[in-house]
Design a protein that fits this description.
This protein is mainly α. The chain has one domain (2-115): NAD(P)-binding Rossmann-like Domain (Rossmann fold), CATH 3.40.50. The chain has four helices and three strands; from the N terminus they run βαβαααβ. Strands 1-2-3 form a three-stranded parallel sheet, with helices on both faces. β1, α1 and β2 (45-48) form a beta-alpha-beta unit. α2 crosses α3 (71-79). The longest helix is centred in the first third of the chain and has 21 residues, at 16-36. The radius of gyration is 16 Å and the shape is elongated.
Length: 124
């Protein structure tokens, strides 16, 4: 199981390195799923959107300082584009990860699973 980002589907402004490296991890995930599938090994990737973590708190504080606002205002700007109306929680992300490595997902391999509250607007 690899963890990348929604940025593999839609590049995120000002995250040049992430926008370049993470799609490579998805390519590796897909390639490994094809190479190892015959041995019963499943390889999937989780693509989280905005998930409320200490790192996100740091980013919100940085954005607030840079723009002369507050972290709450910066968070509100972000979640305005998330259909669920909020950032995800680490436990929600964890449950998706647990599912993907469980026997319940025994026929799921090579999957790029978005965990983003519906934020990604593309079809695939």
């Amino acid at each position: 199981l690899t963890v990348t980002s929604i940025s593999v589907k839609e590049p995120i402004d000002n995250l040049l390195l992430s926008n370049v490296i993470r799609p490579a991890v998805v390519g590796l995930t897909k390639s490994l799923s094809k190479e190892l599938g015959g041995e019963g090994i499943r390889v999937n990737s989780i693509l989280p959107g905005w998930t409320k973590t200490e790192r996100i708190d740091y980013i919100l504080n940085f954005l607030a300082e840079e723009k002369g606002t507050t972290p709450e205002i910066e968070e509100a700007k972000i979640v305005a584009n998330v259909p669920s109306g909020r950032m995800g929680r680490p436990d929600e992300f964890g449950r998706v990860a647990a599912f993907l490595v469980s026997p319940a997902a025994s026929y799921v391999s090579g999957m790029m699973m978005l965990v983003d509250g519906g934020a990604y607007v593309g079809l695939m």
